[in-house]
Specification:
With 340 residues, the chain is an alpha+beta fold. The protein has seven helices and 14 strands. α4 runs antiparallel to α6. The protein is globular, with a radius of gyration of 39 Å.
Amino acid sequence: MPEHCEERRLRCCDASECRSAPRPRTRRLLPLLLVVCVVLAGCNGVFGSDAGTPERTLTPAAVPTDEPTPTPVPQLAPGLTGEGVVNASALAAAHDATLDDTSFTVRRTVTYRTRNGTSIRRIESVTRVADDGRFRITKRWNGSTPLRRVAYYDDGERLLVATTGTDDATTYRQASPGTVVAQRSSVAAAGSRRIETMFVAGETVVAGRTERNGTTVYRLVPAETLRRSPETTTGLGRAVSVEARVTDRGRVRSYTLVQRLSGEGSDGAASIVVSTRYSRVGSTDVERPAWYGTALAATDVTTANRTGARTETATTATAATRTVQRRERRATAIAVGQAS
């Protein structure tokens, strides 16, 4: 073996020198020093090979990390774990899917309260949806508002609206095409958009579970720390808390949303409480309301009057156009005669 190889090998790998050499400051340097020792030994002196054997390049082994593998959290329902709702979008989509192509009823109450808990306005609504998409909605107002009741009925061809004020006078109209599209889209979504927004704004934890007829229902309550959402355009801060019951398939059976305002509104409201319940899934009937015939006749007359007005306007415009054309032809004839 060449002398320079022997000297280098003894310098790096002699046992007595290794024992007397100073220890590295950290354990993380050991793998690197071992690699350096192998490279400096040269001529394969460490492995005792023949001098005629070609040199080999050694690849350092991967150094294991100290980071533990995270333990997967069991999923109780789409987007729901024992820590609460971790994916509001997934839960909202699952809720929507459980009510797709089936009938159901939604009962919702919105209450505006003062700081001491007094109710100043209350809106109650019942939405009945058929499996073919037809729906009927009834909303009732109590409190400081000129409205008393607004009812909607979608017969599959048109959306009729009946509005009753505090003077008990009822008017009927047919919703515009834009309103029809928006209302049908909202009903078809089965409240999933509200559910997603609600669970993004309010943190929850699972507080219990019940089993009934093969279905597991989880009870969700507000977490200790409320998530502060951005201030509204009116400058009012808000804090949201949510209680809900969710099945293992992701259907939100019911929920209560409390939104606390950082300041009182113009009507003195300091909080808004929304309670919603889904029921009669697969067994909801959507019947024509008693006012359907009256609304249909009233809207038909209104439509006929509008059509007649448009026809009369078009006829008047056509007559005016013809008069202008006759005058232009007459003026042209006179001009030609004078020119000749």
